[in-house]
Specification:
Length: 295
């Protein structure tokens, strides 16, 4: 009995070894070149993963020096199936490089699926931007390479120091109502508009008062104002809203969930910008228009 089983086990072992030695179904050398990062073939999952340790960063959190193995490594994993490649990745970016890296991802045909922090109290502030995409492997690798490059590039130096104080605001709330297409409140130098929508949690309907809303808060003058806020949307609406806001230069500062178990699944996008008040309001209106019914 043992003699009959042994050849079967031996054959199975040989077959497994042969599969492990099979070359990757992706041109890994070309992917490395396009992405500008070295990679590793993970045979068990049939994934080629490139990594970019952020050795260019000097990050300290609570007196602890953070190094690439402690989470400061950008990566992108490429898989192949169904005639096309898929990529998923996580990019380490300082706050001042979020917008350029995001623009590079969107321009390269990648989707930006999350933006958040991993640490607390670190200097400089570090964010993590998740990306994904499907299509030709080398096109995806080229896009990843551009995102990696944008995350590391030196700041452009165009950052301006804001001098906006709500106590001296001179906004025109009626003009902003018209620009944003909704009625806002103006008090203590801050114009705020809230557009609610509904969802279901635990079998109950929840709405604006429970936090299911898009909002914008503005201060300053009609010529130069600041805006910050939040857009709530279905997952399928995220990429269109991202493109609309970035097209006019509005900075995206976070993409994440606020709830769990809600129906439909909702994503919350936080933004910040400085510019002409009416233009900012119009941009927010465009973003709201790309989301499903607010009622």
């Amino acid at each position: 009995m043992i003699l009959r089983v042994a050849p079967v086990l031996l054959a199975a072992g040989i077959a497994a070894a042969a599969r492990a030695q099979q070359p990757p179904p992706l041109d890994t050398a070309a992917i490395e070149k396009a992405a500008g990062a070295k990679g590793t073939w993970i045979a068990a999952e049939k994934v080629f993963k490139v990594s970019l340790p952020r050795t260019d960063l000097s990050v300290v959190a609570d007196g602890v020096k953070l190094t690439p193995p402690m989470g400061l490594t950008s990566w992108a994993a490429f898989g192949s199936g169904g005639g096309s490649a898929i990529v998923m990745g996580d990019v380490v970016v300082t706050e001042d490089r979020v917008a350029p890296a995001m623009d590079a991802a969107l321009a390269g045909g990648l989707e930006v699926t999350a933006l958040h922090n991993h640490f607390a109290g670190e200097t400089p502030r570090i964010m993590f931007m998740h990306v994904s995409g499907m299509g030709d492997a080398l096109r995806l690798a080229d896009a990843v390479g551009k995102v990696f490059a944008a995350s590391r590039a030196a700041p452009a130096g165009e950052t301006a120091t804001a001098s906006i104080d709500p106590s001296t605001s001179t906004l025109d709330p009626a003009a902003l109502d018209r620009a944003i297409g909704a009625k806002g409140d103006y008090a203590n130098g801050v114009y705020k508009v809230v557009v609610g929508r509904k969802a279901r949690m635990h079998g109950e309907t929840v709405g604006s008062a429970m936090g299911v809303n898009t909002w914008a808060a503005m201060a300053g003058t009609m010529d130069r104002a600041s805006v910050d806020g939040d857009v709530v949307m279905k997952e399928a609406e995220l990429q269109a809203v991202l493109r609309a806001l970035r097209k006019v230069g509005i900075r995206i500062v976070a993409i994440h969930n606020h709830m769990t178990g809600e129906e439909p699944r909702l994503v919350f996008l936080h933004y910040w910008s400085i510019g002409p008040a009416a233009s900012l309001a119009s941009a927010i209106r465009s973003a709201i228009a790309l989301t499903s019914s607010a009622s």
